[in-house]
Design a protein that fits this description.
174 residues; 2 domains; 67% helix; TAT_signal_bac_arc
C-alpha cells in the first residue's frame, strides 16, 4: 500500500512539474509568426486532383484548353489563398498538410493512391463525404476547398459566358 501511495505522489509531482515547465516555456518563448501559404508539391498535387472534380463539366473538353484552364485555376486558387489573413492561410496549409499524409488521406479522405494517381471517382466520393459529414470541421474544410476553387474559377472573366453572366455593368466600372 505504501509503495502505491509513493508511486501516486511521485506521478502527481512529475505531472505538476511538467505542466509548470510547459507554462513557463510558453510564457518565455513567443509564438512563431505564421508564414504565408506555400503551394508545395503535396498541396499542388492535392489541388490538381480536387480542381477537375469540383469544376467537372465547366472545364473545356479539348485537352490543351483543359490543361490551360486547370493550370490557371490552380494559380488563381493559390493567389486567393495568399490573399487570406495569415492565420487563415495557416489553417489552409494545415489542411493540405493533413491531406498530404498517406494515412490521413486514406482514413479521412478515402483516397488510397497518391494525389498524383488519385482516381477522380474516389476524389468525388471524398468531397461528397466531407460535404455532408457529421463533423462540422470536415464540412468547413470541404466548403473552404469548394469556395476557393469555384471562386477562383469564376474570378476569370472567360468563365462567365458559360453561365450567361455578361460581366459587371459598365457604369459600375467607372
Amino acid at each position: 500500500m505504501s509503495n502505491r501511495r509513493s508511486f501516486l505522489k511521485i506521478g502527481a509531482a512529475a505531472a505538476i512539474t511538467l505542466a509548470a515547465g510547459g507554462a513557463i516555456y510558453r510564457m518565455v518563448t513567443p509564438a512563431p509568426a505564421p508564414h504565408p501559404f506555400a503551394l508545395d508539391g503535396q498541396a499542388r498535387a492535392a489541388l490538381n486532383a480536387i480542381i477537375p472534380v469540383l469544376l467537372g463539366p465547366l472545364l473545356p473538353t479539348e485537352a490543351t484548353a483543359r490543361a490551360q484552364a486547370l493550370a490557371a485555376t490552380l494559380e488563381r486558387t493559390h493567389g486567393a489563398i495568399r490573399g487570406l489573413p495569415l492565420s487563415t492561410q495557416k489553417e489552409v496549409q494545415d489542411l493540405f498538410g493533413l491531406l498530404a499524409l498517406a494515412p490521413a488521406r486514406r482514413l479521412l479522405a478515402g483516397v488510397s493512391a497518391s494525389w498524383e494517381q488519385a482516381d477522380p471517382a474516389e476524389v468525388a466520393d471524398f468531397l461528397q463525404s466531407w460535404r455532408s459529414h457529421r463533423l462540422a470541421m470536415l464540412q468547413t474544410a470541404y466548403l473552404a476547398l469548394h469556395d476557393l476553387v469555384l471562386g477562383s474559377w469564376y474570378a476569370d472573366p472567360s468563365s462567365w459566358a458559360a453561365i450567361g453572366y455578361p460581366g459587371p455593368r459598365k457604369e459600375l466600372l467607372k
